[in-house]
Amino acid sequence: MSAPRQAILDWAMRLVSLDTTSRDPNLPLIEVVAAELRERGLATHVRPAPSQGWANLIATIPAADGSLDGGVVLSGHTDVVPVDGQNWASAPFEPQIRDGRLYGRGAADMKGFIACVLALLPDLLAAQLTEPIHLAFSYDEELGCIGGEQIVKNFADLGLHPRCAIIGEPTMMRAIRGHKSVNSVRIEFRGVACHSSLKPHGLNAIEHAAVVIRQISEYGDRLAATGPYDEAYEVPYSTVGVNIVHGGIANNTVADSCVIEADFRTIAADDPRALYDTLRGYALAQGELMTAAHPDAGVDVRLLSMVPGLETSPDGPAVELARALGLEVSDAKVTYGTEAGQFSGAGMDAIVCGPGDIAQAHGANEYVALDQLAACETMLTRLVQQLSR
After folding, report:
1. pTM for the whole thing?
2. The dihedral of CA 347, 349, 355, 358: what is its sign?
3. Which of 122-126, 152-156, 220-224, 332-336 has the lowest mean pLDDT?
4. N or C: which end of the chain has fewer CB within 10 A?
5. Residues annotated as catalytic (active site), given as ranges
6. CA–CA gap between residue 25 and residue 324 (Å, rounded)
7. What distance separates the 2 farthest-apart alpha carbons in the chain?
């Protein structure tokens, strides 16, 4: 089993030990990274989020002639998912190396990749680059790629226009060029409370929500049955379902509120906006029935996130670079979402490629194999060679 250089392990341990669960600020990690980059003489741009305590970071290693034009982005998100209720064998933010694996929240998703990039800074800075390499580290990817939406705007604001991007999500170091869009919608049903013994005097929000939940479920069944299909996906059709339901305050009180959240993921042949309009239509039609029954009742619909899918050309600059780096370019597409679609939409041809397995992300005892970190080190070393004089 090959092992990465010690600097990669040191950075990975340091990054994993910083608790950047999405509900908490990521600025402590951003400040650590920014200090390292500035100490090495790099112009480093920390761009605050609308909410205080969160930020994106962009830094550029210029080409040997000082040019900032074009270049390649190495991008990763700094936030991690919660560990609440999970049974870990070791403390999730006290990383450990056991049996050839680095354990800790974010080890795979995706601080291992960021650690590789930071550890190879001396190599990047020593190279006589023919084009720049841009580093991009974002916030709140796990909450709907919020930071990704902002970071592509940050690039534009800085006048930077990279030609392609590598998003280092865990792919077992395969180059992935396609994934579904990831979207979520929140629907709030407002009923009328009363004692359950006087049920006709009230309006039960949960019962009306149940109607819409059933409609959404049946819509998902139709998508599965009739398509369209893209056989490059493990699940070859667009999916939709309700995964969160909150409502009611007591068993003897007619529920005056129920909130549901639906997740829908689309292949390229389906328009995510059209799916949203369908779900919104179900909700508003039910809301009209509720308002007709009681003027204080109704429905509110809010789109929480709409993260674009990725459809990178097999003949574009990102795949061409992947092949030059000796990566396996996969024909398979992945069902999970990333920030790659946002980079692509901003004119940066993008692939997803990073160390670790997505199957290890988000669960208890998350880990990245050390040989995966070594493979990422090899990719980055080849990138330096590829972009050097």
Report:
1. 0.92
2. positive
3. 332-336
4. N
5. 79, 141
6. 38
7. 81
